[in-house]
Amino acid sequence: MKRTLGAVLCFSLAATFALAKDAKVKPVKVDLAKLKPAVAEGWTGDFNAALQSWTFEKYTPGADDTNVPNRFYLDTFPSDRPKDVEGYAKKLQKDQTFQDYGSLFTAVAEKTKLAAGWLITGTQKYLDDAEDKGQPAFVLYREDLGVYCRGSVFVSEAVRAEAIEACKSLTP
Predict the structure, then answer these.
(1) What's the whole-number average pLDDT of the chain?
(2) Once rounded to an integer, what is the mean pLDDT over residues 15-31?
(3) For the whole model, what pTM was predicted?
(4) Average pLDDT of 23-43?
(5) In-domain check, residue 85
(6) Which of 40, 47, 52, 97 is the most exposed place for a label (fewest CB within 10 A)?
């Protein structure tokens, strides 16, 4: 079988692009205690060493002059979870024991691929509360760091957007 230089180069380039396309991002080993996002004004973070988890909160004035919490979490991504955005979104909508026990995403507004991961936004409802109409929620997976942020307690989409931007700001 006779091959020309052009055929070899084309095959070589095609194989290189196929490998690059299929290559998985290798997560950097991070010390979760030191991995803190750049949060907007008003957010505070507490690291729980026993759980190896961050909880970030921001209190905003409510309708009845009480402080209403907004909250998101930063954790190591569990190995038993789907790493693809479609699989994760499906579980959020169908399995009430999947992420936050007793809740489901009643709507997925957006599934976005990021440079090193993905973002799901939508509405999450706690099923044991008949009056719960759902709150803005999100899950942001950072494949490069092996972590994810998730939150479902936000008074508005604007506050949720602050949390999402904080999670996007993570650097090793």
Answers:
(1) 84
(2) 53
(3) 0.81
(4) 82
(5) yes
(6) 97
DSSP output for the chain: ----HHHHHHHHHHHHHHHHHHPPPPPP---GGG----PPTT-EEEEETTTTEEEEEEEEE-TTSSEEEEEEEEEEPPTTS--SHHHHHHHHHH-TTSSSTTEEEEEEEEEEEETTEEEEEEEEEETT-TT---EEEEEEEETTTTEEEEEEE-SSHHHHHHHHHHHHT---
Asked if residue 72 belongs to a domain, the reply is yes
Residue 53: inside a domain: yes
How many whole angstroms separate alpha carbon 44 and alpha carbon 98? 27
Which residues span the domain enclosing 135?
A: 25-168
Residue for token pair 């995403």? 105
CATH number, domain with residue 75? 3.40.1000
pLDDT of the residue at 25: 58
Is 155 inside any structural domain? yes
Going by pLDDT thresholds of 50, 70 and 90, the confidence category of residue 5 is very low
Domain count for the chain: 1
In the prediction, which pLDDT does 27 show? Answer: 63
Residues 50/126, Cβ–Cβ less than 8 Å? no
In total, the chain counts a number of residues equal to 172
